[in-house]
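Encode chain A's predicted structure.
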Amino acid sequence: MRGLSEIDIGSWKEYYSNDCIDDGSQITVKIMKGTKQKSVHLSNFYHEDVGKIIHLINSLVADKYKIWYDKEKLIADYNKCKSNSKRP
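Encoded structure for chain A:
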């Protein structure tokens, strides 16, 4: 398991989505690491590296400022979408 210092933001796409859900969780993350800057939009999609960052932030802030980013739900919804799209 990679730590935060090993995250390569240069490999991130600008957009990730679960195309089966039109609304729901919409998160845009803007991050700077060293001299690299990256902006990524996540539409009902769980991204492992972003999840680590949000988990760290949530561990530092008061409950009222925590960011909803439910790994299990987002992955389950994405897998359900993929399995439904494979049906004829």
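The mean pLDDT is 90.
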